[in-house]
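Next comes one such specimen:
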Amino acid sequence: MNYNEVLANARENIGKLCKACPVCNGLACRNTVPGPGAKGVGDTAIRNYQKWQEIRVNMDTLCAPKAVDTSLELFGKKFKYPFFAGPVGAVNLHYSDAYDDVSYNKVLVSACAENGIVAFTGDGTNPKVMEAATDAIALADGMGVPTVKPWNLDTIREKMDLVKKSGAFAVAMDVDAAGLPFLKNMDPPAGGKSVEDLKAIAEMAGAPFIVKGVMTVKGALKAKEAGAAAIVVSNHGGRVQDQCPATAEVLPEIVKAVGGSMKIFVDGGIRSGVDIFKALALGADAVIIARPFVTAVYGGAEEGVKAYIDKLAGELADTMAMCGAFSLDEITPDMVR
């Protein structure tokens, strides 16, 4: 199965809200929520994509040709590629009932693990979502990253017990999900977290703790103070706040502030292997891609996920070779403009 076949199949299965566009750039769905769109006028998701396209790569083929190594070492594990599948929740609400969160995560986790990367899994108000996600990660020998919503501390503690049983090699919290209505209305309160809260959660995790949803230097320094092993520069794909900067715009300043002291991932509008190269050149250690993996699952299940991973991997390797970088360590800021 190739990626064009994945897209064609997805259009038959993914429902009326997502168009399974050739490039997932936020234009066709804009503010379609429920659906794959973004909050408000959909500006943030669209801007995420467009800002990566404004960055250009600098070719340099005046170097001896050799094999390209795209592998990444992270938290004691080795991966074939420096990109991961992002967490997505309520797929049957935002896409179609061909999948629910349980069946979606089962497919995504196993397919990613089999093809040399890992999936971040979602969370939800239904306890079965986290239970099934952590079960899938356990079956993949811990090769997955459960992403816990910023619930109240008692609920988080219950979720972390499931995470530990799964043997997951890392655990994340998408703190930007504080803007989701179902968290705002919880009793006891859920949502935003203080540095002290994050410290307690990082200790509960029992594995490298990743704070997802950092968009400022101030936020990155808070996550570092709390003991996070990594951050994800992310605005939740534009789904929690309109009129945000793009992740590509804020990544360099965050790398300058905390790069080298913690791992830095970035998501938001990254859609190709060339985009992945750009993010690595700007200082990210790895990237996360979410919406297109939904298309891949709906368009071909495990085979669809493999097709998309292969597409990204080929584009990344080609770009590295054409820019004179034959390993991830050789990718430098002067390779983009």
Remarks:
- The chain has a mean pLDDT of 96.
